Amino acid sequence: MPISNDARSLSAPRLRVGLIAGAAVAAASTGTAWSQTAPPPPAAPAAAAVDEVVVTAQRRVQRIQDVGIAVTALDAKAIANLNLKDSTDLTKAVPSLRMNAYTPSAVVFNIRGISQNDFGDEQEPPVAVYQDDSYASSFIASGFPIFDQQRIEVLRGPQGTLFGRNATGGAIQFISNKPTKDFQGYLTLTTGSYGEWLEEGALSGPLADNVQMRLSGTHDWADGYLTNIYAGQPSRGGENHYALRDIIDWQPTGATNVELNVKYSRTPHENSAGMYSWEAAYPNAQGQGVYLPANQVNPLLLLGYNPAFPGPTYPTGTDLTGYSNSAISAPRGGDPWKIATVGLPSFTDRTLFGSTLKVEAPAGPFHLTSITDYQSDDKDYQENASASPNDQVNFLQGAHVSQYSQEVRALGNFGNHELVLGAFGMSINGHYTASYAFPSIFDLVPDVRFSQRTTSFAAFGQDEWTLPDNFKAILGVRVWHDERKVAYTATDNTGETIIFNTHEIVAIDGATGQSALQGVTVTPGDADKQFGDYALRAELDYKPDHNTLIYGSFNRGSKSGGFTLSTATPTAGYEKDFLNGIPYKPEVLNSVEGGVKTTLPLRTTLNADVFYYNYQNYQAFAEYGLVETVVNRAAYEAGLELEGSTHPIERLTFSGNASYMNNKVRNVPLPDGEIVDRHFPQAPDASIDLLARYDWYEPIGDFFLQGDSQWSSKYCFSVLCAPVEHEPAHIIGNARIGYIPPNKRWDVAFYVDNVGQEVYRVYTFDVASYTGQIPSVYAKPRTWGLTATYHFGS
User: How much is the average pLDDT of 399-413?
Assistant: First the structure.
């Protein structure tokens, strides 16, 4: 079934998700196993009806239980009940999904440990993020408010034979509510902790007999949850952003739909930057950060790194600046939600604009889809990256990115064959500025400017062949070609200079003023790189009865190479390693996966998936001192994922998911040169998400009580896995209670997130060697909110 105007009827009330915590949910089929052309499977006892979930993971509307892919779908009800306000909140609901973010303008999604933690705005992530078929090529556009969503789909594993950009980690699709042929809308108001006020609403209806429009928007404001201990200094970690979306659908003929989707998002000087808690540290023998006890002198002071402390006596428990405050240091039992930063104002300023024209029409035996997309992303970010009031570490990023893409797909049904053919082209033109400056102690102020242009072309196709005896074979292929061209210049106030472009390679040692090109192997030709490869999918599905799907697949995913463009200049004497480390190779992921999706009595669903990844040239981000780089390494991973839901008694729902992963990145160089094996970043060995909900009905209306939790075992924030980057196991609990009156026109709910006030980090990185401290961003403490929604129209 192609995605057509009928998909508009899949509104939130009909897309009820029993697995609210992100578990994939099944539905009992009343038809044949695969299609009307396939023979019926053996009769099976009918399971009690369960809530139906549909997805478009394979570019047509299907029940989630008929799709042999590890996919999680959340509808509008699940999004509301889990209090998902931002794209990063998805980690509450999806197995093996994590995120890394020091600001909403630089969000890195991580699926099964596959991510790209390089915080350079020019990088393309291995997890592809889409808003209504619009691909977000930069981290700048991956974090955004969630509003007026029909559903969200998270596909785990390599993607690329069906649509969009090829991705090794997976894909996240945010699908908005569509215009309706009758007038309707809603308004949601939320207030809560830290003075939060959130407004969200939508208006939808006909403009003419064959034209419909839906206008929606959201605005969120809250004070920061990180309180500054110095009077007159602002808190950090607040909200100040708004977004608008206008979708117009036009049916020039009965079988053709033309959709224009225009979206705009603005974050004006939001105080969501420099959200770092103070933690003193020092480098160990491997050059990696270790937390400093309160009664110990920082070895960096003993080495004379700060001339203000010449000895022979030194303060204890301090960072490199001599500052110490155990009361706000979480490793010492202090308050992680208190900060001591002064100096440079910290803010995120971002503007995102996008427009997408989507045309769907029949063409002979095919159903054609054309997607023409334009995006413009602007970012101005600055922070004092030091958590000490005695220091100034200025980190600045600026970006202007323009992106054009065109995709064409043809979907055809030829008897027992469902065929998808497509082509994708994209152009990205980015201009960037950056500075990772240490003006206080080291008197170092870099000035980094660069541009990067990417052009990409791909052709793809997939055939689903329904076989006798309830088997189905799937074969897909993609071929792609990318070109990346870069011009990079980095200088600083010491005279250190690096130039890397198609005309020249320059390296000047700031200490001597002499050329430092000895040992440099890159050439001007390396600033214009051509990459090309292919992706494959081969799958066999079997449905022994209506309520069971067994599948096995092989996927070969591939991702383009690129450039690591550091935000700082190299330390004098390290120009060779700096320049030679700029280009990195494409990565290839070979994945073997198998699973079963079942519907059982008591409206129970249980899905299981096992996978094995074998990586060639895994793109591992590492930070050595002030220099960011990506190194290609071999890697592997094996994992198991479980998802399920059940209704043991009427009105009671239990749902959840669990994952187990074992992985290794081979031959990772530590700062001292030692070679070790490490785990994927932010890839806990085990994680469990659970949800319980009870609904009851009274003459005065409907009530519900809900609790959910997320537990994660320990993990590391980077592939280098310094001791300070170890995140301990933690558990987060949330609660929600709500009421809906008999007329269903409005509803109200009260929620508490992080009920147990769990202390855990969402971001950190190791710069102990340079600052004697670790910048860590802690998640919000316990928060509460009261939300009410009014529905109007039909």
Answer: 96
